[in-house]
């Protein structure tokens, strides 16, 4: 999988971006198109008129020079990923030469699954871009950490259609055997399971580690064996070290995770996080405190019974309140008391006759308005940064401000982190702490659009969620990152593509709903599909637009080998056309199938019994055989074979052999393509 994805990503990147020396849409590939495919708009154009050089027409699957520069500038300066997501790909972008150097296998893994549909959209025709987006979504699905058998079986049926669409877009020389291996990836997933147990990333890392162990190049095997034995002995002894000593079996966590001083019984307070960096003290307003407190109480399972009691006391309508009415009731209360749920619950906690746990009574009294704020916070295997911290980081290469959570109304909310509040609840001998994020949420209705068939979710960062509840408990969030489009046309301007991030060192914990949705016998169900995989891949088999190649501007061929090959091929083609006889329209050509089966080289004959030419055609009167030009005669030898008795035949054969040898050598020297004349 790793090598297939790397080679496919490299082929798409080099060809679509028309990278010099690496693109598979070279001159030889265009010659293949002229000989194999009926795509006249992509044929090489010989010199004519004021144009003295050969012209290579621009293909619909390639970016022009201006678009390419714009896309590479975006990749170098605007693309940033979260911490530990991938390497810094911008270092390999060379704007002067128009090339990308130094990309590794994992870089192509990121490019084909995340960057390709974003980087090429708007520059390529929509029907071409959609096929590439389907390829990207296909690789994201088969590389998921958890896969569903039904999803993979569906992919297995759709992959041939996707590959056929690619063959209708790209030239024949684009398709190496590695490109055709895409057909087998879905079946491999069915047989071998999730890809992380099969691909070669861990093997390649181990190879690199072993190479460093080769101190003596004369005794490579012994060097590796001795170093490995010593390393394993050291690892075995570290198993008996104290728990606070960092070892291979007890590694230092990538992110901070502060353990609480006491084990709280309230579920909302049982998720430890970690502060990263210094904190500041800030006094929040009473209105903001009530809003945060209401959100905390609404997310506590222990408060559900009290909320039902509050509903019975305050709501007087016949029917139940709508979600909007219910939130307004909790926030403002109902006449004549107009008491909010926060104040009502505070009174309940202050009443010793009301039965509740000590921790819940502590929460009911609220937290201090003087709170600590943090710029960095680690939770759920993520590291989050506030927008203020991100903007003031010098030479920042990563971005960790993207936040995602799923609301109680089953809507997905995307935003950016603004502040991290550390809330402290004190009551007698009990102290509870809770971290809350204040975020800028985007509008989930007018500021979001999705395309499930290719797995893309887009948000408009300039929109703002109209609700007042902009707070979320830290451990209820997941990290996302946003990619803007390099092409800012009318359709894409202001929109950004959002991708979720897998946590570091943590696996998803199944919930009760997950177990209810799986088969207890086969253990199959939606639980086994990775949560971040949005949408279901649907291969669009509408092929009408893929057949159309529009004649576009091109570029002049400057490579001397390509010019020599094209000139020689064009000259040979003109000679063949000039020597072909003009057929007689009044003469009827036919093949004679009634001949002696014992004859080695039967000569076709026409209806009147006349011999046909050497090409198997009946030659009319006055038309000469093209293999025997004027001055060359035919005689019948004793063995029954035609023999040229004139020296012109030998000269013609020698000249043809020399041309074939020269042309074959030139073709072998040319890189790329599949054109060969021998």
UniProtKB/TrEMBL annotation:
UniProt feature, compositional bias: Acidic residues: 638-671
Signal peptide: none
One Pfam assignment: DUF4218
Positions of the DUF4218 domain: 142-254
Entry coiled-coil feature ranges: none
InterPro entries attached to this UniProt entry: DUF4216 (IPR025312), DUF4218 (IPR025452)
Domain of life per record: Eukaryota
Stretches assigned to the DUF4216 domain: 422-498
Region Disordered: start-end pairs: 573-678
Protein name (record): Transposon protein, putative, CACTA, En/Spm sub-class
Species the sequence originates in: Lolium multiflorum
């Amino acid at each position: 999988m790793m090598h297939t994805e790397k080679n496919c990503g490299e082929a798409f990147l080099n060809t679509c971006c028309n990278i010099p020396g690496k693109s598979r849409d070279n001159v030889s590939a265009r010659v293949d198109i002229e000989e194999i495919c009926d795509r006249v708009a992509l044929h090489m154009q010989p010199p004519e008129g004021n144009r003295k050089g050969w012209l290579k027409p621009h293909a619909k699957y390639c970016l022009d020079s201006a678009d390419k520069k714009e896309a590479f500038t975006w990749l170098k300066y605007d693309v940033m990923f979260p911490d530990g997501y991938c390497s810094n790909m911008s270092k390999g972008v060379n704007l002067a030469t128009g090339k990308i150097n130094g990309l590794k296998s994992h870089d192509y893994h990121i490019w084909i699954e995340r960057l390709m549909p974003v980087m090429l959209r708007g520059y390529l025709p929509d029907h071409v871009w959609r096929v590439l987006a389907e390829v990207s979504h296909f690789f994201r699905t088969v590389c998921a950490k958890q896969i569903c058998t039904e999803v993979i079986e569906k992919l297995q049926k759709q992959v041939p259609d996707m590959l056929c669409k690619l063959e209708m877009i790209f030239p024949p020389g684009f398709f190496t055997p590695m490109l055709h291996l895409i057909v087998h990836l879905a079946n491999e997933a069915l047989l071998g399971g999730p890809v992380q147990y099969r691909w070669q990333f861990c093997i390649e890392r181990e190879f690199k580690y072993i190479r460093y162990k080769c101190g003596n190049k004369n005794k490579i095997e012994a060097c590796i064996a001795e170093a490995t034995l010593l390393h394993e002995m050291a690892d075995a002894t570290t198993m008996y070290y104290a728990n606070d000593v960092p070892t291979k079996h007890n590694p230092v966590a990538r992110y901070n995770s502060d353990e609480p001083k006491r084990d709280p019984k309230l579920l909302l307070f049982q998720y430890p996080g970690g502060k990263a960096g210094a904190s500041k003290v800030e006094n929040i307003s009473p209105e903001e405190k009530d809003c945060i407190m209401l959100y905390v109480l609404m997310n506590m399972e222990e408060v559900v019974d009290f909320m039902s009691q509050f509903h019975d006391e305050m709501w007087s309508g016949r029917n139940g309140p709508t979600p909007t009415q219910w939130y307004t009731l909790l926030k403002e209360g109902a006449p004549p008391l107009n008491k909010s749920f926060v104040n009502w619950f505070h009174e309940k906690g202050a009443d010793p006759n009301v039965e509740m746990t000590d921790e819940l009574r502590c929460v009911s009294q609220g937290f201090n308005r003087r709170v600590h704020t943090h710029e960095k916070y680690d939770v759920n295997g993520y590291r989050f940064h506030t927008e203020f911290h991100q903007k003031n980081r010098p030479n920042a290469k990563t971005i960790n401000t993207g936040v995602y959570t799923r609301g109680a109304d089953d809507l997905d909310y995307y935003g950016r982190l603004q502040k991290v509040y550390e809330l402290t609840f004190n009551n007698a001998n009990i102290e509870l702490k809770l971290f809350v994020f204040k975020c800028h949420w985007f509008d989930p209705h007018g500021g979001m659009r999705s395309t499930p068939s290719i797995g893309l979710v887009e948000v408009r960062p300039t929109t703002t969620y109209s609700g007042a509840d902009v707070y979320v408990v830290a451990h209820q969030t997941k990290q996302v990152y946003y990619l803007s489009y390099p092409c800012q046309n009318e359709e894409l301007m202001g929109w950004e593509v959002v991708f979720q991030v897998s946590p570091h060192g943590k696996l998803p914990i199944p919930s009760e709903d997950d177990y209810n949705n799986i088969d207890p016998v086969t253990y199959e169900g939606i639980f086994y599909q990775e949560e971040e995989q949005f949408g279901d891949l649907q291969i669009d088999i509408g092929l009408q637009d893929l057949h159309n190649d529009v004649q576009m501007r091109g570029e002049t061929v400057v490579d001397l080998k390509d010019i020599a090959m094209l000139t020689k091929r064009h000259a040979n083609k003109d000679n063949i056309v000039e020597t072909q006889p003009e057929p007689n329209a009044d003469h009827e050509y036919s093949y004679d199938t009634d001949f002696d089966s014992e004859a080695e080289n039967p000569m076709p004959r026409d209806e009147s019994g006349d011999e046909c030419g050497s090409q198997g055609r009946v030659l009319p009167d006055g038309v000469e055989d093209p293999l025997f030009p004027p001055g060359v005669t035919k005689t019948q030898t004793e063995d029954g074979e035609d023999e040229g008795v004139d020296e012109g035949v030998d000269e013609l054969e020698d000249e043809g052999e020399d041309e074939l040898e020269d042309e074959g050598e030139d073709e072998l020297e040319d890189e790329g393509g599949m054109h060969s004349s021998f």
